[in-house]
Known about the structure:
- The chain is mostly helical.
- Helix content is 65%, strand content 0%.
- It has 16 helices and no strands.
- Helix 4 crosses helix 5, helix 5 packs across helix 6 and helix 9 packs parallel to helix 14.
- It is globular and about 50 Å long.
Amino acid sequence: xxxxxxxxxxxxxxxxxxxxxxxxxxxxxxxxxxxxxxxxxxxxxxxxxxxxxxxxxxxxxxxxxxxxxxxxxxxxxxxxxxxxxxxxxxxxxxxxxxxxxxxxxxxxxxxxxxxxxxxxxxxxxxxxxxxxxxxxxxxxxxxxxxxxxxxxxxxxxxxxxxxxxxxxxxxxxxxxxxxxxxxxxxxxxxxxxxxxxxxxxxxxxxxxxxxxxxxxxxxxxxxxxxxxxxxxxxxxxxxxxxxxxxxxxxxxxxxxxxxxxxxxxxxxxxxxxxxxxxxxxxxxxxxxxxxxxxxxxxxxxxxxxxxxxx
Length: 310
């Protein structure tokens, strides 16, 4: 039985790890690995800058949307899609520096009066059925924390949360898989449970199931830091499985470049759930602008999770 202090450390690790991964990856966004090496050598500290010119420790869409979802879960006690969408709309209206085209189109449609359960389909049609991106994957970690003790509710909530912005079912199944991985990491059994988790998804989406198995054996040249949801999931899992520490996992992903901040966030949450807050470098935690909010909501989710398990 996991104690509340241990669970709190892993819950904090997941949310603070997400923010640290996003902040570390900011200067590498849209650069190639060779360009990163030429410009920075190896990115191992939170520098700020990048294409959105963020301050060191400032995060963008992944952390902001994660907080919207996490705080809704705490305040409502359950996944309330309407409440979550209102929070996303309010965040969008604050003019954040980074909003993906898919999410922007959904929120513009929602703001114009499209119901929350139709907005992503409308955006999907407007944009011409785009490839499933990682915009729902990057923010769904709080669901794994809230519904850690209820796998069926977690699966339903993960698919529903993804559908708020990403109509393609592939994104939803990737979120289901990622939430399952997070729960396994929180319980300390990520590597051991991986084959079973992949097997459970074979009949749902073989692309996602295959990505999980590939991550365990992939060579570095076989992973890609792209915004395609399957690539993001595979790369994050690959990095966490091969790394001995939180820092090694996140640094590996960020220095691949491309969608470095988002995949850094996805990796950071998974690595943080596995290793806990205590293993995140203090020099990465210190500058995080959202550190206090993330810590507070992680602790509340830990309390809710322990209550649900008793």
